[in-house]
Amino acid sequence: MERIPIVAPRVTTDRLVLRQFETRDFETFAARFMDPTAMAFLHPIPDRRTAWQKLAALNGGWTLTGAGWWAVEVRETGELAGTVGAFFRETVLERGPDADLELGWTVFPEHRRKRIAVESARAALAYGFERHPVKRVIAHVAPENVASVGVCTALGMTLEGDVDFYGLPSLRYAISRAR
Description:
Elements: E1 11-12, E2 16-19, H1 26-34, H2 48-65, E3 68-74, E4 80-87, H3 92-95, E5 101-107, H4 116-131, E6 136-141, H5 146-154, E7 158-165, E8 168-176
Parallel strand pairs: 5-6
Antiparallel strand pairs: 1-2, 2-3, 3-4, 4-5, 6-8, 7-8
């Protein structure tokens, strides 16, 4: 297979590499995103075909908006540990320069409780503020997802309140650009 052009920037932290998704990620990605336990606070993907479409869409956001999702790789082992994003939703089409950048993360079960979500989300947040002239960054968290609430707190985000997130109750956290 021909080498795919890189569209997602590479960001490194002490323990992680945030990088573009590659075909080598597919088996792990599909297995975790189809697993109801791994996706307890999200909607599991129903099949491999949908997993492939999601993987492709996560890469595609970069070409549409210059923001998107990364594969989170453990530097020491090269394992795919999850995903993290600093991305724009479709509301960017309506709101333009007033659109919020959004953070999201998923850490696969075998890599949880190692602060990978905090480390990768902190890097994504810094990248987002560095590259985009947004006023704030938001995150939507399921109310019962205590671990993700902890990530928001560790990042210095504050709770804005309860919101309806595409028909699901959610908590919205936000952090403003430092002046």
